[in-house]
Inverse folding.
C-alpha cells in the first residue's frame, strides 16, 4: 500500500541514476588518465633507452 503522494521513491530513483552516471564518468576519466600516463611513461622509457645506447656507442 504505497502512497502516491510520497515523492521519496522517485527522488531516490533519480538520485541513484545520477550517482551511477557520475561513477561511470569518473571511471572513464580515471581510465583515460591511466592510458595517458602509461603512454607518456613508455615515451620516456624509450627516450632513456635511446640516449643510453647512444652514449654507450660513443664511448
Amino acid at each position: 500500500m504505497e502512497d502516491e503522494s510520497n515523492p521519496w521513491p522517485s527522488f531516490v530513483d533519480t538520485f541513484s541514476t545520477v550517482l551511477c552516471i557520475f561513477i561511470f564518468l569518473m571511471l572513464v576519466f580515471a581510465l583515460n588518465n591511466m592510458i595517458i600516463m602509461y603512454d607518456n611513461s613508455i615515451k620516456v622509457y624509450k627516450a632513456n633507452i635511446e640516449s643510453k645506447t647512444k652514449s654507450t656507442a660513443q664511448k
Observations:
- The mean pLDDT is 87.
- The chain has one domain: 1-59.
- The CA atoms of residues 41 and 47 lie 10 Å apart.
- Residues 8-58 form the longest helix (51 residues).
